[in-house]
Amino acid sequence: MPRSIIAGIGKYLPERVVTNNDLLKYMDTSDEWIQERTGIKERRYAHRTEETTTTMGVEAAKIAIERAGITPQDIDFIVFATLCPDYYFPGCGVLVQRALKMKEIGALDVRNQCSGFVYALSVADQFIRTGTYKNILVIGAEKHSFGIDFSTRGRNVSVIFGDGAGAVVLQPATDEQSGILSTHLHSDGESAEILAMYNPGTHANHWKEEKYAAFDDAEIGQMFFSHNMIDQAQIFPYMDGPAVFKKAIVKFPEVINEALQKNGYTTKDLRLLIPHQANLRISQFVQQKLQLSDEQVYNNIQHYGNTTAASVPIALCEAWEKGKINKGDLVCLAAFGSGFTWASALLKW
User: Fold this and answer.
1) Is the full-model pTM beyond 0.85?
2) Does the pLDDT of residue 56 top 60, yes or no?
3) 249-264, pLDDT tens digit by residue?
4) How do residues 79-123 score in pLDDT, each as one tens digit?
5) Nearest Cα to Cα of residue 242 among 37, 29, 30
6) What is the three-class DSSP state of 242?
7) Looking at the annotation, which residues are catalytic?
8) Which of 176, 148, 146 lies closest to 160 in space, CA to CA?
9) Comparing C-alpha atoms, which of 7, 4, 11, 9 is closest to residue 277?
10) What pLDDT sits at residue 221?
11) How far is CA 26 from CA 6, 149, 153, 230, 278, in A?
């Protein structure tokens, strides 16, 4: 089976830069407090009404498609990874197909949060390897700024996240020396709720209370999204940061080593590790544990924050644009996030 190769790559970042000091108007925090815990200095926020998760993904896709030397009409499948789609449904994939006036091709939405892009890449890679499709557009995009808690109560989460998009075009490799060597996907749902957005949802935990036992289906259905949820700030993401950190620093190195060992390499062979930009402290811990040099790890969370599903393609694109990735280089992509899910992809550029 042919390998798949990244034939084109693009990124999009909103113009608005939001520094740590800019957040002081909303919450009790400081530049020092944020940098010490996350390494973040600033992030990008999308325009409130003129930019969406989809529109940012489209802009990144246009660049990737052009760099691949093809047109939107040549794309024969879309995989779109995000945790904050434009709509509850339908997903962003079909909105991209519409915006780029593509043929009536398949569009798949991947909801694996921070590891979404690597999961999406793995799915696309299998379609290429089996000969099902020849030009697959893979997008990771997020508009977090529209749904986070801008208050002191929510600062542990809200200071971390930013907006942006990245995209790649996958094609069959034309030589045996390049392409995605392997992908590795894992999950453990035992502690799913320690990093989650509970509402709105169909889990119905609220309705387990005895006082709601007499409510009929219609009454409960009307309260799928209630004023009570808003009043008690139950509509924002929740994260137990220390617990996530402890899990991430174990699973990140494991899945990176898994990819290297699968293909007969060691960390010394790695030209560049591009981790999902979750937290600079996590990346630094992983770098130290794997004994990688500063030149072997690419981080840009300092300037963009955590863009979850978009962070890996944005960082990959930026590293390539800066000349840090060249033909034949061994590159590892790795991510860890809500679920928990974690993944890696090893490729020869």
Assistant:
1) yes
2) yes
3) 999 999 999 999 999 9
4) 999 999 999 999 999 999 999 999 999 999 999 999 999 999 999
5) 37
6) helix
7) 114, 276, 306
8) 148
9) 11
10) 63
11) 41, 9, 10, 18, 22
pLDDT at 143: 98
Contact 165, 59 (CB under 8 A): yes
Mean pLDDT over residues 59-66, rounded?
Answer: 98
CA distance 69 to 59: 16
User: Cα(190)–Cα(339) distance, rounded to whole angstroms?
Assistant: 8
3 state SS of 331:
strand
Identify the pLDDT of residue 204. 61
d(CA 48, CA 57): 16
Model confidence pLDDT, tens digit, residues 160-199: 999 999 999 999 998 888 999 999 999 999 988 888 888 7
End-to-end C-alpha distance for the chain, whole angstroms: 18
Q: What are phi and psi of 37, to 5 degrees?
A: -90, -25
Is the C-alpha dihedral spanning 251, 253, 255, 257 positive or negative? negative
CA distances, 217 to each of 207, 211, 214, 308 (Å): 11, 15, 10, 36
List, in order of start, the domains of the chain with CATH numbers: 4-172 (3.40.47.10), 179-193+238-348 (3.40.47.10), 198-231 (no CATH)
